[in-house]
Specification:
Shape: globular
Number of strands: 15
Largest sheet: 5 strands, mixed
Low-confidence stretches: none
Strand content: 15-25%
Mean pLDDT: 90
Length: 281
């Protein structure tokens, strides 16, 4: 009996140490390991996404995955003869999935923020975006100030959620209970907006515009932005150790810009011939 108790005591001492070492090794690999060789050997790169984020990456009624980022990612890795495997993830756990090696990239309307830059490395910026407030016209909400005492929805882990906390005077301090309702996906937020359970959604403009334009009652919605809330910059997120992968993504995006393919993809999804691409740094 004493021997059993002794083993139990040793396990209680050793297990936490082993778990801590495991966590440290995962963090170390994410910060220092370059996985490009492994990606080349398996001829596949794994991209994590929220597959309900129109028009960046979403599933059609038949289940087919389509979107702006889907086309863009495939066009980049086609240059290297590498297949792209898209994996649906819990967007609130995206950086953890990346660090643990479950996925290789975050490529799904992923905004560059100071908070995220502490955790991941970013590619060059490939698209500009901003956060907008979506409301129903019948509620007569015409600006952020009109949300005073109203209920706001945001997606958990989204840029809108981050902006809400970083600029509390714009919305957070005004809304009911000074707290937004969190949703796993934007479609769920729209369900509650249409059912009058919330009066506004803070979300990406690219999503809002695309979603509203594809509704039969598109004239029922209104969107508003604030000059006090900075523009979003979409880029590809990756582990800090993946320096070669970062260089390959940047070079691939640059090539698409030179050939005009980036312009064609923008035209397809946004109806604009924009060929924006941020500095390759």
């Amino acid at each position: 009996m004493k021997r059993v108790k002794g083993w139990l005591l040793m396990l209680c001492i050793i297990l936490p140490t082993l778990l801590l070492a495991g966590c440290q090794s995962v963090t170390y690999r994410a910060a220092h390991q370059d996985t490009w060789g492994r990606i080349q050997r398996r001829h596949k790169v794994i991209i994590g996404l929220d597959d309900s984020f129109v028009p960046m990456g979403f599933r059609q009624k038949n289940g087919k995955l389509v979107g702006y980022d889907i086309d863009l990612a495939r066009a980049v890795f086609k240059q290297y003869g590498i297949k792209v495997d898209f994996q649906t993830i819990d967007w609130s756990m995206k950086e953890t999935e990346l660090k643990n090696g479950t996925i290789d990239l975050l490529w799904n309307g992923y905004s560059v923020t100071p908070q995220r830059q502490k955790k991941v490395a970013f590619s060059r910026v490939y698209l500009l975006n901003k956060q907008v407030l979506v409301t129903k016209k019948k509620d007569r909400i015409q600006n952020f100030q009109d949300m005073t005492g109203k209920t706001l929805g945001v997606q958990n882990g989204s840029t809108g959620m981050t902006m809400l906390d970083e600029y509390p005077k714009l919305l957070k301090d005004r809304i009911k209970n000074h707290k937004a309702v969190l949703y796993d996906t934007f479609p769920n937020a729209f369900i509650d907006l249409n059912a009058n359970r919330i009066q506004g959604i803070l979300m990406d403009e690219v999503y809002a515009n695309y979603y509203i334009q594809h509704q039969s009652n598109k004239d029922a919605y209104a969107t508003y932005s604030s000059s006090k809330m900075p523009a979003d910059k979409f880029a590809v997120g990756m582990r800090k150790g993946d320096k070669t992968l970062r260089r390959k993504v940047n070079q691939g995006l640059g090539h698409l810009q030179k050939t005009g393919e980036l312009r064609k993809i923008n035209q397809k999804w946004f109806g604009t011939n924009s060929n924006y691409l941020g500095p390759n740094n």
